[in-house]
Amino acid sequence: MKIAFLYAGQGSQSPGMGRDIYEQFPQIRPVFDAKPLGLDLEALCFDADADTLAQTQHTQPAMGAFAAAVTALLREAGVAPDAAMGLSLGEYGALHASGVLDSAALLELLTFRGRAMSEAARGIGSAMAAVFGLDEAELRAALTTVEGDVWCCNFNCPGQIVIGGEASAVQAAINAAKGAGAKRCVPLKVGGPFHTPLMAPAGEALEARLAEMALAAPTIPVVCNVDGRLLSAGRTVAENLVLQVQSPVRFEAGLRTLLGLGIDTFVEIGPGKVLTGFVKKVAPEAVTYAIEDAASLAIAIQAIGGKL
After folding, report:
1. Sequence-distant (≥ 6) Cβ neighbours of residue 257 within 8 angstroms
2. CA-wise closest residue to 219 among 82, 112, 111
3. Quick count: other Cβ atoms within 10 Å of Cβ 69?
């Protein structure tokens, strides 16, 4: 068995996330009790309503706290990853799992990133949408017929690509995609045109912040969103994260890289089962577990052979 930890991204958050884990496992309470850059994580994760939690500046550190807590409990139970990858903000959870960031640095950096992305999106009339049923070449051809700024920004799994940009251009792109044979197009509730060039100001802010930080070398392979390949010696962690915030997420390619490493078991960490759904589209034979709460944590640990 070779295991990869997969860390969920924005959109998977849910009110009350992590409360039962917090109550059952006092050893991880310091993670949720942290106040990165003055943010009350415990109140945010356990008491905030869905609209508050969905705000980018809140979602990112909340998801980071869940990721750090579950990762610690898995390791305590003897379940360690052979590799890691995340979706968008989830890449930071993967870097934490690899030892690049400790939990304090993870939470502070995601709090900073969430605020920087919210600020970059301020005043931009933007939108994002998931397009189903077209491959990359077909969708890119459709986008060439559209006026305005719209880009492919997430390549999630076969037949599912997310587009984002100016709201009017995204709507025009939806119409063009349907005309090109898309099965359906689903507008997404997001706070900005993430993973597009419109996030360049957030990239600049991250670059300055990361220059102040000491990042450790990864102890396990980490697959990057930017190209779906292993974090290479030719690009530092900081350079990768600056690019990542304003570049398309190549999640499907990343899954294929993990499969090439011999990964056969995928553990999704974060509320929801989005990433394990992507895995099944790429590798139906793979074994998957989704850890959303204390019950699913216990199931995954027992199935893998750990003991908490």
Report:
1. 223, 228, 229, 230
2. 82
3. 24
Tens digits of per-residue pLDDT, 214-238?
A: 999 999 999 999 999 999 766 899 9
List all residues 6 or more positions away from 161 whose beta carbon is below 8 Å from its beta carbon: 130, 131, 134, 136, 139, 152, 154, 155
- What is the enclosing helix (H) or strand (E) of 126? strand 126-132
- Which of 253, 185, 9 shows the shortest CA–CA distance to 110? 9
Q: Name the least confident of 44-48, 130-134, 214-218, 233-237.
A: 233-237
First-to-final CA distance of the chain:
19
**Alpha carbon distance 292, 52 (integer Å):** 20
Residue 119 tokens read as: 């600020």
Catalytic sites, residue numbers: 88, 195
Domains of the chain in start order, with CATH, are 3-121+196-304 (3.40.366.10), 126-188 (3.30.70.250)
